[in-house]
């Protein structure tokens, strides 16, 4: 089925010398290793080009759902702990938090990219947004980082070609600053090596910095954008975990690029 990200993941693999970012071994290999030849700006330009090649001049179907902040939280009919946490956060902090924001639904047809949505949106003040990729027991930090980056590139393409695409949240589509954030329990960022009892922590800070520089370059002067990862301490109850996330971001300084 056509998708705006048809070439995106193959392009990510090419950046990683053909490796699949879904594999934990690849995340372990990339962790802490900053190749001298790695160029984050060139990497992001190539990833944006992969999205541009599959971006239509106008949507195949009429849609007004993309990039709209959902004012009502969907019913809690889910077995997914990730979805349950998203909805609990949005319900507890309505007005500042929103869940499941569609990004590219219908662009290539009525069934295309319907599930391509940002898990959580935090809106701390006018013109400032956090687009959050939440991970509870799935994937790894490397894959999640490129997921968040992919949504950032879709946002840029949407912002540049919004004519005819039916977006109604004008503040969001003309935002001054966007943080693309991977959010997960602290344990998500840890791994174990054979023969070692202690846990090791993935170190992808170098990659976040490189990709953030590239993201800001392609964003230009219109909007400040940055890519980062944030860990939180989950509680024993769903409500406690939601409260921990909300409190974390209420206290967290909005990080903007410094380059």
Observed structural traits:
259 residues; alpha/beta; 5-stranded mixed beta sheet; 8 helices; globular
Task: Please tell me about this protein's structure.
α3 crosses α7. The chain contains eight helices and seven strands; from the N terminus they run ααααβββααβββαβα. The chain has helices spanning about 10-15, 25-30, 40-50, 80-90, 140-160, 170-175, 205-220, 240-250, and strands at about 95-100, 115-125, 130-135, 175-185, 190, 200, 225-230. The model has no long low-confidence stretch (mean pLDDT about 90). The radius of gyration is 18 Å and the shape is globular. It is an alpha/beta fold. About 40% of the residues are buried. The strands form two sheets. It has a five-stranded mixed beta sheet with strand order 1-2-3-4-7, with helices on both faces. The protein has a two-stranded antiparallel sheet with strand order 5-6.
